[in-house]
Amino acid sequence: MRHVGGAATPAGVDLTPRDLGQELRGRRVTLRPLRAGDYRAWLEVRTRAREWLVHWEPRRAGAPYLSEDRSSFVARCSMRERDHQLGTAFSFGIFVGGSFVGEINLSSIQRGASQSAYLGYWVDEAHAGRGYVPESCVVVFGFAFSELSLHRVQVAIIPRNRPSRRVAEKLGLVEEGLARGYLEIDGVWEDHVRYAITSEDWAERREAYEKDWLGSADA
Ligand SMILES: CC(C)(COP(=O)(O)OP(=O)(O)OC[C@H]1O[C@@H](n2cnc3c(N)ncnc32)[C@H](O)[C@@H]1OP(=O)(O)O)[C@@H](O)C(=O)NCCC(=O)NCCS
Fold this sequence. Notes:
The structure is a single chain. With 219 residues, this protein is of the alpha+beta class. It has helices at residues 17-20, 39-54, 70-86, 132-147, 162-170, 199-214; strands at residues 2-4, 23-25, 29-32, 90-96, 99-110, 116-123, 152-157, 174-185, 188-198. It has six helices and nine strands, in the order βαββααβββαβαββα. A hairpin with a 2-residue loop joins strand 4 (90-96) and strand 5 (99-110). The chain is globular, with a radius of gyration of 17 Å. The relative contact order is 0.15.
């Protein structure tokens, strides 16, 4: 994994503005924070893939769906920049060959005795099945453990979401059990299977992950 555009910082705090524009690179994917100029590309993907995405997205019953207008998008970019500055969440667009294809984010970063975060992700339906999300997860694990010094990254998945569970399985994340009524997804309280990777797992598997997911395309 190569980190481009920012100096490595040990604890995920006091990130400089230069770090906020940091790009993280995998074999095929580039991850970077979304900016206002990404709106058209984001909207094009979001419009095409809306039906495929909304059934898996957090939303309170009766609450509106995600606002897709330009000002809401720009406001979200600003909020995320603020989260980056505070070290409470890190959100990235996933780009392949310069094109926007999805999003991945580390949220609810807890420090103190927890040192943990949640990982969420999605990819455009037109780009599903090409391993872009597991590759992006490995890049984000490197960022979470090597740069933010977190101890644990967790993923929570609705049991019937087979594609997402396959991502967790392919990455060898440890299944830790079922959390009942864990999140309100598209207006319904849904059970979630919880998966996690710890920094000890990362240290053990890092080489294999990088070989399997980040090695040269010809390897
Ligand atoms: C779950 C998701 C992120 C997987 O991303 P991805 O980059 O396609 O991941 P992979 O390429 O490793 O594919 C994972 C599995 O998806 C399934 N899959 C493959 N192509 C698919 C397609 N066109 N449509 C749906 N599922 C497909 C396969 O079961 C695949 O497993 P396999 O490689 O063993 O065959 C993506 O399907 C998605 O964004 N879904 C909608 C939103 C969502 O569920 N987010 C996660 C919430 S926890």
